[in-house]
Amino acid sequence: METEMGFSRFALFLFTIALLSSPVLSDLVLSKVDRRIYLTSQIVRYTATLRVENEGSELVSEVLLAFPELQAKNLAYLTVSVNEGKGKQKVSTDDLPIEVVSPKNMPPAVSFYSVTLPKGLAPGDSLTLDVMAVFTHALQPFPEKITQADIQLVVFQDSAYYLSPYAVKVQSLSVKLPEARIESYTKLENTKVHGSEIKYGPHEDLPAFSYSPIGIHFESNQPFSNAQEVEREIEISHWGNVQITEHYKLIHGGAQSKGEFSRLDFQARPNVRGASAIRYLVATLPPRAHSVYYRDEIGNISTSHLWSDSKKTELLIEPRYPMFGGWRTAFTIGYGLPLQDFLFQSEGKRFLNITLSSPMVELVIDKLIVKVVLPEGSKDISVSTPFPVKQWQETKISHLDIDGRPVVVLEKTNVVPEHNKYFQVYYKFNKLSMLREPLMLISGFFFLFVACIVYTRADISISKSSASYLAKQQWEEVQAAIQQVESIINRCLATHDKLEASLRDLSRTGDVQACKAARKTADGLLKDLSKELKPLLAFLQSSPSASQILPKVEDLVAKEKELQERVMTKHSTVVDAYERKSAGKDIENRVALQQQKITALKQEVDDLMEYIDEI
Amino acid sequence: MAPKPIASPVPDAWYPTLAVFMLAVGLVVTASFFIYEATSSRRNRSLAKELTTGAVASVFLGFGSLFLLLSAGVYV
């Protein structure tokens, strides 16, 4: 019923066109048109090879392509290129610019696209054009509701004659179906069926705007995966990573499922019960993708597989349940890519060169939003895309940010895998801005240290005249004095060590003068140090809170003095002995007693120092 | 002029090693800072020494924590 109504609608269309006298456009004639329509997936792909001849007397610089308006509504992608090869050799050149035009005096309900020829077509010359068009949502499921056990049948409608504003001399049409099962198709004369291919034609000498509606009703079990919204976020970090996060909202775009779903039937006989369900999706990621994850609102989804080789990384994901007609699901995929594969530097600007659309195979996207997040400090941002998209800028606050990162947002509707081309985002970035992030961390840590310093120096006691406060203050002064005493004693001990070293030097080199000079300097130093010690000792004696520690300190000072004297005598004995050139053993005997006492005293001094330290 | 690929100023493979070394040095300097704070008496403390120790410690800790974040996969 639906199909018949559809047919009658197109018949009316044909009638309308035939009524209007077709105007003579320019003097172009299409001498040969070969059309191929591929219905092997949910996306309808259409290629046409047109041989255009200029039979007029003027140079023609544009060719008009016509599509019925209903078809043009579903048109997602259109390219035309000039085919320069001869015969079977096909050599395509760059795409020609195409514009939507609405010329006057044309039949209604037809959309026109004007293709600009680069060199123009001279009179008498001919040219071969390759037209490639991709249509989405062009297959209507019929019946519209099926149960789990029914097969999915879809209808495709088009015209057997090529709709064109020019007369066509010879044309043929070939329709390729996914399976050999055809429910019904319009039979014209010259229609042949070979397996899963239907050939209409060849038809000869048809006037402009000739149209003959055909409909094909066939089985298609290809997965009708349709994403209603895909949000793809590309975040660049100059420390070496491009992180891509994609959010999908998927729906099965085929015949709606009615009745119940039996999991048992589906798993036992999947080809009979649920042949048209979406069981998995395949995504082709760039090579060297790492940290791939697949999750949704509930959590991680573990039914996935990843294979990688040097040219690509393939990800196969299974949704949480097989999707039947009208069922929806939502999930997120994320992965990281190495920076040097995608970010380049040229002429003072940096640019990101990356694919625009989703990496999923054969996915129809109703609304695609691509967000490119550039590092903070990027300026002069501009985008260059191979086809027009809607774009605007936003800000995103992310890790270690002050104001936020600039985000370029691109939006496109009705996206097919042919749109997955490379696009570039240009921007300027000062290398020093990369230091902003470690500087932020450093200043954070420094603030902690300054807080510690302030805390230890701040005096936060409430009462400044209480007994405990005053006692604490005095004790701190005593501590300071003791520390200074300790440092002086350490310096004295160091001088003793120097003297001992000079004695060793003497035994090595025999230089008595150097030894005497060392003795003199040591003498001077020790005198200075004992001078420094006097006021400190006086202070300690006067302060009451030092009473406990005072005896130990005095003991220490006294012992140190004794040690000093003994070291001096030993030194002078040895030097004298050298001057008198007495034997080594003799010297040792003389100083043996002194040496013993020295070592004992040293030990006591060290013990006392340790004790004082621990206070 | 063919475009030149841009990579990180520090090679990726060094991130974990750099993180460990810088954090270790930073923690050692922090320890010396706190030892100085604890053992010196109020009058003997010198602000210059405290500030320099704190600055050196915070530089090492800052870079160490940056490389720690990068090696963990949080590309800031």
Automatic annotation (TrEMBL), chain A:
Chief place of localization: endoplasmic reticulum
Keyword Transmembrane: yes
Gene Ontology biological-process entries: protein N-linked glycosylation via asparagine
Bilayer-crossing regions: 438-456
Any single GO CC term annotated in Swiss-Prot or TrEMBL for this entry: oligosaccharyltransferase complex
Localization in the cell: Endoplasmic reticulum membrane
Family: Belongs to the OST1 family.
Protein name, as recorded: Dolichyl-diphosphooligosaccharide--protein glycosyltransferase subunit 1
Organism: Rubroshorea leprosula
UniProtKB/TrEMBL annotation, chain B:
Protein name: Dolichyl-diphosphooligosaccharide-protein glycosyltransferase subunit OST5
Species the sequence originates in: Rubroshorea leprosula
InterPro entries found in the cross-reference section: TMEM258/Ost5
Chief place of localization: membrane
Location relative to the cell: Membrane
Family label: Belongs to the OST5 family.
Keyword terms: Membrane, Transmembrane, Transmembrane helix
GO CC annotation terms, alphabetical: oligosaccharyltransferase complex
GO biological process: protein N-linked glycosylation
